[in-house]
Design goal:
five-stranded antiparallel sheet; elongated; Thiol Ester Dehydrase, Chain A
Length: about 120
């Protein structure tokens, strides 16, 4: 049974580094002045950065797991400086649920299901 939970405090530096690695330099992620003029009001995390944090947490505990398929959605933005809870649970044999939510208001930032194998 898998049941993992961690806290994460996203930073603008992480957003910037992920943009460099991924090539996704969209201003909403890396330009605070631009983002301040949007409906978000702040830069927002790349969705895949959140997923990467969850997958990294899982792999630290279960290094032989490999992903077979995934589905995910990002219902709310993730901002730098706002504490996030990361959670991975086994919901059925070979199926994991991955969730990230803001600690302050429990707004869901990422909802995902992943099929895994060893």
């Amino acid at each position: 049974m898998i049941d993992l939970t961690e806290d994460w405090l996203p930073t603008q530096a992480e957003f910037d580094r992920f943009a460099e690695v991924s090539g996704d330099n969209n201003a909403i992620h890396v330009d605070p002045a631009f983002a301040a003029r949007t409906g978000f009001g702040h830069t927002v995390s790349h969705g895949m950065l959140i997923y990467t944090k969850l997958w990294g947490m899982l792999r630290r505990e279960h290094p032989t797991l490999r992903q077979v398929s995934q589905s995910m959605m990002f219902p709310n933005p993730c901002f730098a400086g706002e504490p996030v809870v990361l959670r991975v649970t086994g919901t059925a044999p070979g199926t994991l649920t991955l969730v990230a939510y803001r600690r302050s208001d429990e707004a869901e930032l990422l909802l995902a299901e992943s099929e895994v194998a060893r």
